Amino acid sequence: MSDDSGNTGLPDDVSDATLGFLLAVSMFLPSFFGATLITDALLGWVGLPLSPLLWLIVAVPLAIVMVHVEDRVQNCSDWERLEGFWYSGGVGALTIPPLALALLAPLPALTGLDRGGPSMVVFVALVLLIVGIVVRGKLRGTA
Fold it and tell me: For the whole model, what pTM was predicted?
């Protein structure tokens, strides 16, 4: 991806790494919230499942690679055929594994929290991410 923010001194890789990280985290947090809702509210398991956090070790580099190669994939002659797979595969790769890890190997932490507590911890992190994005946009004049 090209750097359109006016930071011409930065290579594209820095921009791709930042966008990839933000993509991974922004796709991960709603999935993690869903995982805590399922384990906490529906199944009644105690604690915050930490196993989905392990997926970030894989998801961040994967998202960086996806952002880095996206322009080339979009410019290929088969883009119209690949478009649905590219987006649905990317979203699935970043959101489904945290849900599966929370259900199959939760690795609970913060087990002293009351019921609903683990979901609130993740919900607050998700809200802070959204507020941070909005505030950053306002400060840069893009929102």
Answer: 0.74
Tokens of 44: 């009644």
Distances (CA, A) of 130 to 1, 3, 27, 67, 79: 23, 22, 12, 21, 31
C-alpha 69/C-alpha 62 separation (Å) is 11
pLDDT digits (tens, 9 = 90+) for 92-137: 999 999 999 989 988 888 888 888 888 888 888 888 888 887 887 7
State the Cα–Cα distance between residues 83 and 91, nearest whole angstrom. Answer: 12
Instruction: Read off the pLDDT of residues 30-40 as tens digits, 9 standing for 90 and up.
Output: 888 888 888 88
- Residue 88 is encoded by which pair of tokens? 């649905």
Helix (H, G, I), strand (E, B) or coil at 109: strand
Beta-bridged to residue 109, according to DSSP, are 48
Measured CA to CA, the distance from residue 8 to residue 128 in angstroms comes to: 30
CA 70 vs. chain centroid, Å, equals 17
